[in-house]
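User: Hey, my collaborator sent me this sequence without any context and asked if I could get a structure. I don't really work with proteins. Can you help?
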Amino acid sequence: MLCENKLGALGLLLTDSLENISDGLSLSATALLLSLFYHPEATATELAKIVGVSQPTAVRVLDGLVARGLIKRKDRAGRITLLGITAAGRKRAQALQVRRLRATKILLSALTAAERKNFERTLDKLLASATSSRAFARTTCRLCDHALCDGPLCPIGTRATEIERRAQSLSKEK
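Assistant: No problem. I've predicted the 3D structure and written it out in structure-token form, which is a compact way to encode the shape of the chain:
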């Protein structure tokens, strides 16, 4: 139970550090802005699923981001409105990502290069084992810098792809 307790403390430490770098945005607003940065022209419903909030909550938070000039409502296709990120929103998202990575780098600086490599392997194993679907992957990686951790470098995305391929293989067998 000691390891589990310590892992929980690490989770809170990371959450607190994310709140400290959010530059006045809530964690939901930060996640929605970064999600739109990496998934341009999404809808409020799509973003709500990625971030893991209800659609009404997403709309309320997105309204605040529109008011701040960070995102804009774009074309409307029937009842669906696409959202886009503004130049100010892109700049803010990039700055948030830099601060997020700097905060985690400071935490990891306590490890030697060898310890960090071992920790990364362990982290990959834990993240992959927790992954249950593509939707889970999108939600879990909602704050990730997708340029750094993509394709085979992403244990979560790789595991989600394996799950999808296995499901396709099983459906073809039937």
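In plain terms: The domain at 1-110 is CATH 1.10.10.10 (Arc Repressor Mutant, subunit A). You can pass these tokens on to your collaborator as they are.
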